[in-house]
Amino acid sequence: MDLFVILLICLSCLIIFSLWPGRHARRKLPPGPMPLPIVGNILQLNIKDISKSLSMLAKDYGPVFTVYFGMKPTVILYGYEAIKEALIDYGEEFSDRGSFPVIEKFTKGLGIVFSSGQTWKQTRRFSLMVLRQMGMGKKTLEDQIQEEALCLVEALKKTNASPCDPTLLLACVPGNVMSSIIFQKRFDYDDQKFLTLLKYVHEILAIASTLWIQFCNLVPFLHYFPGSHRKLFKNVAALKKFIMEQIKEHQESLDTSNPRDFIDYFLIRMEKEKHNKQSEFTMDNFVITAWDIFSAGTETTSTTLRYVLLLLLKHPEITAKVQEEIDQVIGRCRSPCMQDRSHMPYTDAVIHEIQRYIDLTPIILPHAVTQDFTFREYFIPKGTEILIHISSALHDEKEFPNPWQFDPGHFLDESGNFKRSDYFMVFSAGKRTCAGESLAHMELFLLLTTILQHFTLKPLVDPKDIDTTPVTKSLSSLPPFYELCFVPV
Questions:
Q1: What SS3 state is found at 40?
Q2: pTM for the whole thing?
Q3: Helices and strands per DSSP (H, E), number in the chain
Q4: What is the pLDDT of residues 412-439, one digit of tens each?
Q5: Tens of pLDDT, residues 35-48
Q6: In CATH, what class is 82-328+429-488?
Q7: Left, alpha or beta for 359 (phi > 0: left; psi -120 to 50: alpha)?
Q8: Can you tell me the distance from the alpha carbon of 298 to that of 316, in angstroms, rounded to the nearest whole number?
Q9: How far is CA 187 from CA 1, 288, 446, in A?
Q10: Is 333 annotated as a binding residue?
Q11: Contact (Cβ atoms closer than 8 angstroms) between residue 58 and residue 362
Q12: Where exactly are the structural domains of the chain?
């Protein structure tokens, strides 16, 4: 019996091997390395740093090529021109979401981030409308961020200039901003329930960026075995439970003529469409959408802020120039505001350069084509996954001389004025660009300037010994653990 099984496996492998090249050719996909049966090109890639592996392949196959993750073909777009053409010129055709099996286990294609088709279009359109009505990009939200920034200052003063890990404190500001938009709630910075929620959000991104999760995405049956994905599922379940509790509270106090927050707006829309069996506004979609907005709006900004402080510790001469500009434009007697940004080109350049340099999402979440499509003379069948190598635009040598060097001059012209760049795609581009981009810009500027207005950042080691290498570089580039002292000025 054992011999029969072995022979059957060998025969199956031979059949797959014989069919594979023909199948690859018939699809007329872009060129790429020859895949092996079953495993595809996995053995030719460094799973710990997919971004670097794809950069090497782009040298041989150009800006549009195909890689097989297992038996699934994935088209890679590398470089600004190819990315711009796909996401902006042909945005509709490249607007579906590719698969991410670990996350799909609980999102089930709902929400904003991991949905496609009508679910994505209607949910995103509705969410953007509500976020704007709740003040995104407006003065009212700016006022709230300013207030939260001052609360952060008070919390940092309580550290008494002693070494501290800034992770959770930096998450409190964007966490409270998102909480007010979604739940109309604000939490104290020592509220244990709030800190636990932030910890869950932080751990979800950290776990989702691990090598194990990449394997789980390639081999979905690994979900049934023990591993860090179990903790990820547990954290997501806890967040969903919290959201459901907030929804139930809102249902009991809902005034349809006076919506207070995102939850109220969604409940009102659900009631309007309760007789529409095709409606996308269901309770399941509600919970996942709220989870998407809260998590994305909290963790990406707080992670960027951690990197901001780390790089400023590494480069004290740059920190000093930012503080000099703060003294000249804002002074010490009032809070920074968004109008100040246009008068602070160096600070603006530093923030943009940090976002470019840290390469927070080297490869954005997979897209998929919505229909059979010919792109640059290559035929791409409907549903084919697309990986967008955003890092290739952020490190383009023609646009950013010495792209691997941290240099705010990348965003300054010869006269010292701030210089925009179309290659700055940290929030993606096209139809799936980050819905909270304007909010993130506001938070990063106001928080950085407020912190440097009140504190000197003191490292625990010599700046030249500070290591800024990310601890993971797959789904997201996460900064290493560090501590620092916030010394009041």
A1: strand
A2: 0.91
A3: 16, 11
A4: 999 999 999 999 999 999 999 998 899 9
A5: 998 889 988 888 88
A6: mainly alpha
A7: left
A8: 27
A9: 64, 22, 20
A10: no
A11: no
A12: 82-328+429-488
